[in-house]
Amino acid sequence: MTHVTTFYKAKGGVASTLSAIYYACALARVHGPDQVILLDADKGTRSVDKYITRRVKNHGFEVDMPFLVEEWNPNKGPLATFAVEVLKRIGPVKHLIIDMGADPSYAINAAILADTIIMPIKPWETDYETIDDLMSGLAENEGAKKYVLLTIVDRPRQGEAATARADITKKYEAKYGVTVLQTEVKKQAKYRSYHKNGDVPDELWAYEGVYAEINGGHMLDGTPFNLEMDLNPRG
Ligand SMILES: Nc1ncnc2c1ncn2[C@@H]1O[C@H](COP(=O)(O)OP(=O)(O)OP(=O)(O)O)[C@@H](O)[C@H]1O
Ligand SMILES: [Mg+2]
After folding, report:
1. Given this model, what pLDDT does residue 160 score?
2. Into how many domains does the chain fold?
3. Is the CB of 12 under 6 A from ligand 1?
4. 3-state class of 92 per DSSP?
């Protein structure tokens, strides 16, 4: 069975595409490059192919991206049908990751397909008040594991991230079964130059943390996920 993970958001610019890419990198390191498909369902100015035309220089990858990429848009028919066709064509890979746009009429379809839903949220713009919108309509998918990933957490804003974390937990944990991941994606200056020089931020470690939290507590090198260590990472 292919495990479907949807990156699901109500608003653009929350680092969802980069998160989907790095999470796919993390999964591909464990399962192999032919076992992970990243389905770009939000093709636009900052879609997956804009990032993957750059080579991944770090972390031992020598290829453009160490996983398979497919593109969906509404002209290709219903998303679920397309996803099934892709899996028929390529074979039953271990992981399908969907980077979904903010348009709720499409996004809900990707969320309903998902075993795991990751909602990247910038904590300081009270984006988390969008969680009610994101979750309404998901009643049919009670079985999905639902996570909030706090992204682009600036050092001066760590306090706000802590407030957001507490608030989201209080408002949504019981209501929708949403868990806020302990791993936070830090704000990284390097991301700004990403298009220009193709660097992969060292921050890929953060997605190892996401991987560890979602997939049983071990980092990619097999060491147990240790919150204190991982929240004060290398460098
Ligand atoms: N951790 C980060 N620190 C700083 N900038 C970041 C970080 N993550 C992403 N960015 C920047 O934020 C912008 C949006 O990132 P990304 O394309 O991943 O987000 P998105 O939610 O998919 O946006 P879109 O609405 O365009 O689909 C990009 O310019 C990217 O370089
Ligand atoms: Mg995007």
Report:
1. 85
2. 1
3. yes
4. coil
The sheet with strand 95-100 has its strands ordered as 68-71, 36-41, 95-100, 3-7, 116-121, 145-150, 178-180
Give the number of the atom of ligand 1 that is nearest the alpha carbon of residue 47.
Answer: 27
CATH number for the domain harbouring residue 37 = 3.40.50.300
* CA 224 to ligand 2 centroid distance, Å: 31
| Crossing angle (nearest 10°) for helices 104-113 and 79-90 | 40
N- to C-terminal Cα separation, the chain: 38
What is the per-residue pLDDT for 234? 44
- DSSP one-letter string for 37-68: EEEEE--STT-HHHHHTS---STT--SS-SSE
Query: How many angstroms does the Cα of residue 3 sit away from the middle of ligand 1?
Result: 25
* Alpha helices, H only, 91-203: 104-113, 131-135, 158-168, 174-176, 194-197
Q: What is the dihedral of CA 48, 118, 12, 128, to 10 degrees?
A: -170
Domain that holds residue 123: 3-231
Listed in sequence order, the residues at least 6 apart from 179 whose beta carbon sits closer than 8 Å to its beta carbon are 145, 146, 147, 148, 173
Asked if residue 110 lies in contact with residue 8, where contact means CB atoms within 8 angstroms, the answer is yes
The residue ranges of the chain whose pLDDT is under 50 are: 54-63, 193-199, 230-235
